[in-house]
Design brief:
Layout (H helix, E strand, L loop, with lengths): L5 H10 L2 E6 L5 E6 L3 E3 L2 E6 L3 H9 L2 E8 L4 E12 L4 H14 L7 E14 L1 H4 L7 H11 L3
Antiparallel strand pairs: 1-2, 1-5, 3-4, 4-7, 5-6, 6-7
Keywords: Oxidoreductase
GO molecular function: pyridoxamine phosphate oxidase activity
EC number: 1.-.-.-, 1.4.3.5
Length: 151
């Protein structure tokens, strides 16, 4: 399993929304937004709140890719791995389900928790980081996108 660094964990917390890709039975991609991606004890998890297609796909093929990008920093990570579906009652399931309900409210269903065994993590960088001349600092990029999004 690839280590999740403090920076990766910070991006996940700041970005809030991530996108999880799985493979449909016919080989086409399935992309599902997740606001429940989290790191606990160096392990990546997300909750199945309303994702029956994602869970169906992972039961058949545990391959998963997750993209998480902080829109203001214009950077993030692509995580590739294998998913394990944790059922209700599992200790790790309870840890994540309790967090989801504490964060969002007790009415949020958590049908499963998905644990990711990371096999690859690569940076995702916007052209603002790669091509800007002269190069811009992270703070300059953040200010630019705060203004762009009127935050």
């Amino acid at each position: 399993m690839i280590e999740i660094t403090a920076d990766m964990e910070a991006i996940i917390k700041q970005a809030i929304l991530s996108f999880v890709a799985t493979v449909n039975e016919d080989g086409t991609p399935n992309l599902s937004p997740k606001a429940s991606l989290t790191v606990r004890n160096g392990v990546l998890y997300f909750a199945d709140i309303a994702s029956p297609r994602t869970i169906l796909n992972l039961r058949r093929n545990p391959a998963v890719e997750i993209n998480v990008v902080d829109i203001f920093q214009r950077r993030g990570y692509r995580v590739t791995g294998r998913a394990s579906i944790l059922p209700p009652g599992n200790e790790e399931y309870l840890m994540i389900a309790d967090w989801v309900r504490a964060t969002n409210g007790p009415e949020y269903p958590v049908d499963h928790v998905v644990k990711i065994e990371t096999t690859s993590i690569t940076p995702l960088l916007s052209p603002a980081h790669v091509f800007a001349q002269p190069p811009r600092s992270q703070e300059e990029i953040r200010r630019t996108y705060y203004q762009k999004y009127t935050v």
